[in-house]
Amino acid sequence: MFKLLPSVIALVAANLITVYGVWFLDWSFSNILLLYWFESAIVGMTTVIKMIFATPGPGKSNWAKVFLVPFFLVHYGGFMAGHLVFIMLLIMFVETGHNGGEFSEVFNNLLGHLSLVAPAISGLAISHVISLLLNFFGSGEYKTKPVMELFGSPYSRIIVMHLTLLFGMGLTFIVGQHTLVVLLFVALKIAVDLQAHIKEHATQPTGMIIK
User: Fold this and answer.
1) If you write DSSP's letter for every residue of the chain in order, what string do you get?
2) Is the distance from CB of 76 to CB of 46 less than 8 angstroms?
3) Looking at the predicted structure, is the pLDDT value of residue 206 above 70?
4) Which residue in 1, 2, 47, 182 has a CA-CA distance of 20 to 30 Å to 196?
5) What's the gap between Cα 26 and its chain centre?
6) How does pLDDT run across 153-195, given as a tens digit for each residue?
7) Which of 194, 139, 154 lies closest to 46, judged by CA?
8) Burial track 112-141 (b if 16+ CB lie within 10 A, e otherwise)
9) How far is the C-alpha of 172 from the C-alpha of 44, rounded, in Å?
10) Distance CA 211, CA 203 (A)
């Protein structure tokens, strides 16, 4: 557990940037939606790195990567593109009352949200890089994690994230985008992140707990 402490601290610190943005800078739920989309994109990027450098088990070759890495890039990339379109339409609907508009309007709206949450995106990116270096490479996970397990890990995370997003959206539609409601959603997301992080990195495939 102690080996996880630096990456856990980095994870919490990165998420606290979001808390600061919501409390002091009046970030809306729309800002948070876009921020967490970027985090899912970062998770996809680190997953590709993990799949490339994962060491096959005894008697297994690297040929699985030749198929799985490009397939992941296309499949996950397509999923993220569709997810971004959905988020932008939702933001347009919440903020303007309609679900469309000129491309320039949608693009400028996207840039406006990005400029607000850029520090939080940077913090989350640093957090995931720290976890990659300390846990995957530093603790030797690259020697034991099967490529297929790495391939599927971002999807399970996204399913949990979507359930959290649906809960948050439901709250905002019921009671409005009050700061405390958005903070409650962010706190729930941090709790989900911590649980997933510890579950992923605290055990090895042999079932031995890192102490």
Assistant:
1) -GGGHHHHHHHHHHHHHHHHHHHHS---HHHHHHHHHHHHHHHHHHHHHHHHHPPP-TT--THHHHHHHHHHHHHHHHHHHHHHHHHHHHHHHHHHSSS---HHHHHHHHHHHHHHHHHHHHHHHHHHHHHIIIIIIIT-GGGT--HHHHHHHHHHHHHHHHHHHHHHHHHHHHH-S-HHHHHHHHHHHHHHHHHHHHHHHSB-TT-PBP-
2) no
3) no
4) 182
5) 22
6) 888 777 776 776 777 767 766 776 667 777 887 888 888 888 8
7) 154
8) ebeebbeebbebbbebbbbbbebbbeebeb
9) 28
10) 10
In this structure, which long-range contacts are made by residues 187-195, counting pairs with CB atoms below 8 Å and at least 24 apart in sequence?
Answer: 187/19, 188/164, 189/15, 189/36, 189/161, 189/164, 190/12, 190/15, 192/160, 192/161, 192/164, 193/11, 193/15, 194/8, 194/11, 194/12
CA dist 143 and 149 (Å) reads 13
Q: Taking Cα atoms as reference points, which of 10, 2, 1, 36 lies closest to residue 21?
A: 36
- pLDDT tens track for 57-87: 665 667 778 899 999 999 999 988 988 888 8
CA distance 204 to 141: 8
Instruction: For residues 107 and 47, give the distance between their C-alpha atoms in angstroms, rounded to a whole number.
Output: 28
- Would the CA dihedral through 104, 113, 156, 172 be positive or negative? negative
Other beta carbons less than 10 A from residue 22's beta carbon: 22
Quick one: tokens of 15?
């998420």
